[in-house]
Design a protein that fits this description.
Blueprint lengths: L1 H34 L5 H5 L3 H16 L6 H5 L1 H38 L3 H31 L3 H12 L1 H11 L1 H16 L7 E4 L2 E8 L3 E6 L4 E5 L2 H4 L3 E2 L7 E9 L5 H13 L4 E13 L4 E9 L2 H22 L36
Antiparallel strand pairs: 1-2, 1-5, 2-3, 3-4, 6-8, 7-8
Helix pairs in contact: 1-3, 3-5, 5-6, 6-9, 11-12
Amino acid sequence: MENELRPLIVVGGSVVLTLLVGWLADRMLRQTDARHHETPLWGLLRRCRFSLQIVICSALLRGSYHQIRIEGVQAHQAAIGRLLTLVLIGSAGWLLVRIAAAVVESSYARYAAATHDPARVRRVRTQVTLIQRVVSAIVGTVTVAAMLLTFPAMRTAGTSLLASAGVLGIVAGVAAQSTLGNLFAGLQIAFGDMVRLGDTVVVDGEWGTIEEITLTFLAVRTWDERRITMPVSYFTGKPFENWSRGGSEMTGTVFFHLDHSAPIGQMRDKLRDILRECPAWDGRDWSLAVTDTTPSTVEVRAVVTAKDASDIWTVRCVVREQLIAWLCERHPYALPRISTGPAAKRVDPGPDLSKHDGVLPRTGQG
């Protein structure tokens, strides 16, 4: 009877104790989160409850499975112990990644709430994202290495692997030169403040917004919802336009080619009225002036401002549409005209008699 109850006591006790510890930890974190509203750390740590319970349960079973005196368990005792060890190491690594992510997210949330500069917030967001990825990669590598070292064959091969580490390092460095270059380029982008999440950039003639930055690649979301994936080394080795560098405010231009009789003064007044009614205009600056002239037209340039690249596109479109509609309705003569009438026929004036001193040229015989 005792041998039959041992598995129930060991397994059931481990599960009950795991659930109790998980409930107590969640209750403490909930109470702490209610007392400290200024930081979301405690609320984020509550997401680690499941991984914590796996660590506790696997640790309890790893330490007490010897007490299960069943013939099947004793026959495979070494395999069960190694399996529980692997689960314990893997769940511990998972728990560390979740805790690190919670700490990083909490630090970023507090910084974003206290900073009113969007450019600095995007810079910190880029940095913490890459830091989180680096930490996850390091913890994952150490976790896998620790799991492999639980096998006796891997521990035996460890000495020879260390002895040949120099040669393997050179070979790996040559083989993974591109990957390592992208890795260091990603760190350079994150901490060199070259480009940030949410920045508006122009790369290879494509206008878009930085949507994702990893250690090896960067994703640009274009205005038509396409995604351009590029290696991060592109941004450290080639020139590109960053419209959000130093601030997100932008200045845009709208060009009109009009007739010389265009009412420039009235156009300037109309532009001011259009901008006052345009929500996307930030009110910083505007102007309208004649910038060039040709024998048939004049070039009129309207300058407008907006808080970011999306709004400047909207303002330019609104100004272009409404000014053209206003010219068509009120001043159609100001629009450039192309003459399509038939050309006048050339009339032959005949011979010039003044050059012959009154003597007519002879046109025939006799």
